[in-house]
Specification:
The chain is mainly beta. It contains 12 helices and 65 strands.
C-alpha cells in the first residue's frame, strides 16, 4: 500500500476509480420495505458506520511516499461518521483544533497548492461480509472532508474529493468472503478546499455515513424522473429514463400515497430506456400539500422506490409560479450542524429541524452552502418544503485578492466547478422538493459559472437556476448599487441583505428587469434579532414580483464543550484557532439545541397562514383571509376575548368550516361581544381545531389585537390615603416623607438615592439617566460610532437643584439635566423635575434637547436605570409580552398583564447582549415575596436584568458573567430597534432613537402589590 500519488494538489484529477454520477436510491428486497424506504432495514444496505481504528498525523508528508503497512500503527479509535477535531484527543491537544472562519482562507492563498503542514487522518475498518455469487458490491462515502485515498484488502481502490458529495466505488473484485480490511487516508486540505470556503466551522474526516450496497450482477444503474402536464394540470406525464448495466427486464409500478396501483407495466430494456406514464388528474405536490406517489422500479431481486411529486415551477412576466400559482418562499438558510457532532447530523436532527420549521410557518430551505445528506431531501419531499439545492462551491476568500472573481475565471478549476455541479444535480435530480439549482455561493462570477449554468439549463428544464453573485456595480443617486447581469441561464434576480428601500426604489422601479426577486439571504438573525421581518413581508405580499426570501440562518453554529465551568456552547477563538471570526457563527433562529430564539417566534408571527383584519369593530365583524397558496383550512376556530387588565369581560368562538387557499370570509364575533372601550383589549386568534401532520389542536394560525386608545387600567392602592408630603434635609440629602414611604434626594448628584416603604429599602443604587445598552450583535457597526461618541461612558450632571413645597400634598425639585462626556460640551441638555405627591408617588419628568453631531447619529436608548436588592425578584407588568419585544420586533408579543421573575425574563444569548425589553408598557412592578416593591407607571419600554448593562458589554460568554448581587431595572423613553445590521442593512430610520426633543415622564411609587387593585 504505497501512498505516493500527490493528487491533493491536482485540480485536473477529480477522482480515480469512482463510479459515474447517478441518482441517490436504495434497493430493497420486498415491496413492503421499499414502501417504508428505511435504508437501514434493507438487506442490500450494509452499514460500515461505527468505531474505526484511527491514526492522526500533523502533516501528510509524515506518511507520503511510504508503505502504509510499515508506518501506520493505530493507537486510537474514532467514531464514523464524525470529525477528528471533535474527539477527546483533539480537545486534549493531540489533534488539530476546530476552527471557525467566515470567509478568510485558513491558509495562504496560492491555488491549487495547500500547506505542507496538512493534517491527515488514517482510518481502518475491518468487517465481515458474506459475499454472494452474481452480485455486485458498491462502497459509498456520503461525505469526506476534504479528500481521501481508499484501499481495500491492501489494493488501491481510488481517490475522490468534494467534501459534501457522495463518492461510490465498485469493490466487487476486491471484497473477499469473510473478513475484509479497508484503509482510508483523509487529508484536511486539498485543491478543492479553495472551492469550500463557506462560513462555517472547518472540520475534517469521514463525517457522513459509509456503506456498501449489494446489487444484482445486472442492475439499474441510474433513474431519472420528470413530471410534466398537459390540459392545464388535469393530465400528468411521468417521464422516466433508465440506465442499466446491461439488458434487463424492468417492471415499473406507480403507487399513490395509499400504496394503491395507479399504473404499471413491464418492458425489456437495453442499457438505456425511456418510459412515459400518463396519470389522469394527478394529485399535485406542493410544500403545503406534499402529495407523493411512489414509483417502484423492479428488476431481478431489487425493488427501488423513487418519490414522485407532480409539480411545475416556472417564471413568467417577472413572477415565480408553482403549479400555476404565484408563491412566496418563506425560507431559511440551513447549515448542517450538530453542537456535539459538528457537520455530522443524524436522521433525528433532520426530522427535528423540519418539524420545528413547519410549526413556525417556514416553507422553504436553501441548503447553505452545499448539498445536504441525501436523506434530507426525502424528508423535504415528505413534509413539504421548497428547496434551493446549492453546489459545494464558495470562494468567498477571493475578495481579499481584489474583485472576488479570481477562481471563477481560472481554467484549471473549470472541471472542478463542473464536477461539483453535475454530481449534485445527478444525485438529487428526482426530488420534487428541489425547485431551484444554485451554482454556489459568494464565488464571484466568471467563465466557470457560465459553463456550469449553461450545462444545468440544458440538462434540466424543469427547475430554475439561481446564483447571487452575477452583478456589476452601477452608480445610482451617488450610492454604489448592483445591477444583475441578464444571463440566459439565470432565472431569478437574487440579492443578499438589501434594504427595504432598495427593493422599493431600485428593483421595483427597474422596468427592464424581467425576473422575480428573491433574497437568498436577509434579516441576519444574529443574537437579539432580526428586527425588520414585518417590513420585508409587508412589501413581499404587496408585489407579485417579490418571491420571498431566506433568513440567515437556521441554527447557532456553536459547539458544545465541557470544561471546569461545565457544559457550554462556544464559538470561533475558544480553541485558540487563528484566524477566526469569533461569534459570527452564532447567528441562527434557534439555539444549537434547537430551542427557538425570540427571532424565530417573530418570524412565525409574521408568516402566520391566517390574517385577521377589522371590518367593523363596533359590530364585531372581521375578515379572515387564508395566506396559503394551495391548502384548504377546515375546522378553523376564531376565538376571541375582551380583556380588562387580567379579567376577561367576554369571550367566545366562531367556527369557519372551510377556508380555501387565498380566500377570505367575514365572521361576526357573536352575541357576547361588547364594545372595546375604557382601555379594554380585544384579542382574536385563528385556532386549529383538527390535528394534522403539522399542527395540533389549539395551535394558533393567526392573531389580531385591538388596543383601545382610552386610558388603560393601572394598579393603585386599594385604600386611597391622602398623606401630607413632608420635606426635610440633612447634611447630604433632602428627605421626603409621605406616610410610610420615605425618599432621599442626594444634594450633590440630584439623584433619587433612596426609596423605602414599611422598612423595606427598594434601591441599591441611585435612580439616574443613561443612554447605553449592552450592544447587540446587530449593533456591530453602530456601536463603533456610539463608542467614538462616548455613549458607553456618559456623564450625567444635575445642576441648580431647587427644592420647594408647592402645598401640603406636593413637593417639587427642579434642576438642569446635562449629559455628555469628558472634555466635551454636553450634547443632551434640558430640565428635570421630581414631583412628590400625596399618594406616595413621584413624577420624574424631563424635557431635553439632543444635539447630534451627525444626521446619521442616533442613541441606543434614553431612560432611567436603578438597581434593587436581590430579594426584589418578582415582576408584574402591563405591556407587550410575554416575550422580549422592541420597536421593530414585536409581532411575537401582545399587550397584556404578565407575571414573571427577573431571572426568567433574561434571554441567555450565547454572546451576552441587550435582551428582555418590553415595548409599550403602561405599568410595571418589581417586588419581593412579601409584595413590597416599586411600581412604575407611564408609557415606556422596560427590562429587568440580573446583570448590569456594562457587565453584559464586557462579557463574551454567559459563563463569564457573575450573577449580580442586585437586580437592575431599565425604564426607557425609547430604545432603538434591533435591526439586522450585523450583516444586513443599517437600522431603518423609523426605528432609530434620533429624536432631537425628548419629553419623558414616569411615575414611581413604593407599594405593596397585595394591597393594590386595578383602576380603569
Amino acid at each position: 500500500m504505497i501512498f505516493d500519488k500527490k493528487y491533493w494538489e491536482s485540480p485536473d484529477i477529480l477522482h480515480i476509480g469512482r463510479e459515474e454520477n447517478r441518482a441517490y436510491f436504495i434497493p430493497y428486497s420486498t415491496l413492503e420495505s421499499a414502501f417504508d424506504n428505511i435504508r437501514e432495514l434493507s438487506e442490500k444496505y450494509i452499514s460500515l458506520d461505527g468505531v474505526w481504528d484511527f491514526k492522526y498525523y500533523k502533516s501528510v508528508y509524515e506518511i507520503f511516499g511510504k508503505d502504509l503497512r510499515d508506518v501506520v500503527e493505530f493507537e486510537d479509535t474514532i467514531r464514523v461518521p464524525g470529525s477528528w477535531q471533535l474527539t477527546d484527543k483533539a480537545f486534549e491537544g493531540f489533534y488539530d483544533k476546530p476552527q471557525y472562519t467566515n470567509h478568510v482562507y485558513p491558509f495562504m492563498y496560492n491555488p491549487p497548492y495547500v500547506p505542507r503542514e496538512n493534517p491527515a487522518g488514517v482510518y481502518r475498518r475491518t468487517f465481515n461480509i458474506k459475499k454472494k455469487d452474481n452480485k455486485k458490491y458498491y462502497l459509498n462515502f456520503e461525505g469526506v472532508d476534504s479528500c481521501f485515498y481508499l484501499w481495500l484488502n491492501e489494493k488501491f481502490i481510488g481517490y475522490s474529493k468534494v467534501s459534501r458529495m457522495t463518492s461510490e466505488f465498485d469493490v466487487t473484485d476486491f471484497l473477499v468472503d469473510g473478513q475484509n480490511e479497508m484503509l482510508v487516508v483523509v487529508l484536511k486540505w486539498c485543491d478543492g478546499s479553495y472551492l469550500e470556503d463557506q462560513d462555517m466551522w472547518r472540520m475534517s474526516g469521514i463525517f457522513r455515513s459509509v456503506y456498501i450496497l449489494e446489487r444484482d450482477a445486472v442492475h439499474i444503474r441510474d433513474i431519472e424522473v420528470k413530471t410534466r402536464f398537459k390540459d392545464g394540470y388535469s393530465k400528468g406525464i411521468l417521464e422516466i429514463k433508465l440506465d442499466n448495466t446491461d439488458e434487463l427486464d424492468v417492471n415499473l409500478t406507480l403507487y399513490d400515497d395509499n400504496n394503491r396501483v395507479v399504473a404499471s407495466g413491464t418492458c425489456p430494456l437495453s442499457k438505456k430506456g425511456d418510459i412515459t406514464i400518463n396519470v389522469d388528474k394527478p394529485k399535485l405536490w406542493s410544500a403545503e400539500i406534499p402529495n407523493l406517489y411512489t414509483l417502484v422500479v423492479e428488476s431481478g431481486s431489487e425493488k427501488i422506490p423513487v418519490q414522485v411529486g407532480f409539480r411545475e415551477v416556472k417564471v413568467k412576466d417577472r413572477v415565480l409560479y408553482f403549479n400555476g400559482v404565484n408563491i412566496k418562499l418563506k425560507g431559511v438558510n440551513r447549515h448542517e450542524f450538530n453542537p456535539k457532532l459538528g457537520r455530522t447530523v443524524t436522521y433525528e436532527n433532520m426530522v427535528q429541524d423540519l418539524m420545528i420549521m413547519k410549526k413556525h410557518n417556514i416553507n422553504a430551505i436553501r441548503t447553505a452552502h452545499y448539498p445536504d445528506d441525501p436523506r434530507f431531501y426525502e424528508l423535504c419531499n415528505k413534509y413539504g418544503f421548497y428547496v434551493i439545492d446549492e453546489a459545494d462551491i464558495e470562494t468567498h476568500g477571493t475578495i481579499h485578492m481584489g474583485d472576488g472573481h479570481h477562481i471563477a475565471n481560472m481554467e484549471i478549476y473549470r472541471e472542478s466547478f463542473m464536477d461539483r455541479m453535475q454530481r449534485m444535480v445527478h444525485r438529487d435530480k428526482n426530488h420534487p422538493c428541489i425547485i431551484i439549482w444554485s451554482l454556489g455561493n459568494e464565488s464571484g462570477h466568471g467563465t466557470n459559472h457560465d459553463a456550469i449554468g449553461r450545462w444545468a439549463r440544458e440538462f434540466d428544464d424543469t427547475r430554475l437556476i439561481h446564483y447571487e453573485r452575477i452583478f456589476k456595480p452601477t452608480a445610482l443617486e451617488g450610492r454604489l448599487n448592483y445591477k444583475e447581469l441578464d444571463l440566459e441561464y439565470i432565472d431569478l434576480y437574487s440579492r443578499m441583505y438589501p434594504a427595504v428601500d432598495w427593493i422599493e426604489n431600485v428593483y421595483l422601479k427597474d422596468e427592464e428587469e424581467t425576473r422575480p426577486l428573491i433574497l437568498c439571504e436577509y434579516s441576519h438573525a444574529m443574537g437579539n434579532g432580526p428586527g425588520d421581518l414585518k417590513d420585508y413581508w409587508d412589501l413581499f405580499y404587496a408585489h407579485d414580483s417579490l418571491a420571498g426570501g431566506f433568513v440567515w440562518e437556521w441554527v447557532d453554529q456553536a459547539l458544545e464543550v465541557t470544561d471546569e465551568e461545565g457544559s457550554k456552547w462556544v464559538y470561533g477563538g475558544y480553541f485558540d484557532d487563528y484566524p477566526n471570526d469569533g461569534n459570527f457563527c452564532v447567528d441562527g433562529l434557534v439555539y444549537p439545541d434547537r430551542t427557538p430564539h425570540t427571532g424565530l417566534l417573530e418570524y412565525k408571527s409574521v408568516l402566520y397562514p391566517v390574517k385577521i383584519k377589522e371590518v367593523s369593530l363596533e359590530e364585531g365583524i372581521f375578515e379572515i383571509r387564508s395566506m396559503y397558496d394551495f391548502k384548504t383550512l377546515t375546522n378553523l376556530g376564531i376565538s376571541w376575548e375582551l380583556r380588562e387588565g387580567e379579567s376577561i369581560v367576554s369571550s367566545g368562538i366562531t367556527f369557519v368550516q372551510e377556508l380555501k387557499a387565498r380566500d377570505k370570509v367575514q365572521v361576526k364575533l357573536g352575541d357576547g361581544f361588547k364594545p372595546v372601550e375604557n382601555g379594554r383589549v380585544l384579542n382574536i386568534n385563528a385556532v386549529n381545531l383538527k390535528p394534522d401532520s403539522t399542527f395540533n389542536t389549539g395551535d394558533i394560525l393567526g392573531e389580531y389585537q385591538h388596543i383601545s386608545k382610552a386610558q388603560a387600567e393601572c394598579l393603585q392602592s386599594k385604600d386611597q390615603v391622602i398623606n401630607k408630603v413632608v420635606l426635610e434635609e440633612d447634611d447630604n440629602s433632602y428627605v421626603v416623607s409621605i406616610g410610610e414611604i420615605k425618599y432621599r434626594v442626594d444634594k450633590t448628584t440630584g439623584n433619587i438615592s433612596g426609596a423605602d416603604i414599611s422598612g423595606y429599602n427598594l434601591l441599591n443604587s441611585d435612580i439616574d439617566f443613561d443612554i447605553w445598552r449592552a450592544p447587540l450583535d446587530n449593533d456591530m457597526y453602530a456601536k463603533i460610532r456610539w463608542k467614538e461618541e462616548g455613549y458607553d461612558r456618559i456623564q450625567v450632571y444635575k445642576r441648580d437643584i431647587r427644592a420647594k413645597v408647592l402645598d401640603d400634598h406636593n413637593v417639587q425639585f427642579e434642576m438642569e439635566l446635562l449629559m455628555g462626556i469628558f472634555s466635551q460640551l454636553p450634547f443632551i441638555k434640558g430640565q428635570l423635575k421630581y414631583t412628590f405627591k400625596s399618594d406616595g408617588s413621584v413624577d420624574i419628568d424631563c424635557d431635553v434637547k439632543v444635539n447630534y453631531k451627525s444626521e446619521e447619529d442616533f442613541l441606543p436608548r434614553f431612560g432611567l436605570n436603578f438597581s434593587t436588592p436581590l430579594e426584589f425578584n418578582k415582576v408584574k407588568y402591563y405591556g407587550f409580552g410575554p416575550h422580549e419585544c422592541y420597536v421593530d420586533k414585536h409581532n411575537l408579543s401582545k399587550l397584556g398583564v404578565y407575571s414573571s421573575t427577573v431571572d426568567k425574563m433574561y434571554e441567555r444569548y450565547i454572546y451576552p447582549q441587550e435582551n428582555g425589553s418590553h415595548l409599550n408598557t403602561q405599568w410595571m412592578c418589581i417586588y419581593n415575596e412579601q409584595g413590597y416593591g416599586m411600581l412604575a407607571k407611564g408609557e415606556y419600554s422596560f427590562n429587568v436584568s440580573p446583570y448590569k448593562a456594562a457587565d453584559l458589554d464586557k462579557a463574551g460568554y454567559q459563563g463569564e458573567l457573575a450573577r449580580s448581587t442586585e437586580n437592575w431595572v431599565y425604564i426607557d423613553y425609547m430604545m432603538s430597534g434591533v435591526g439586522s445590521n450585523s450583516c444586513g442593512p443599517v437600522l431603518m430610520e423609523k426605528y432609530r432613537l434620533n429624536h432631537k426633543d425628548i419629553k419623558f415622564k414616569v411615575n414611581l411609587k413604593p407599594v405593596n402589590i397585595n394591597a393594590t387593585r386595578y383602576r380603569g
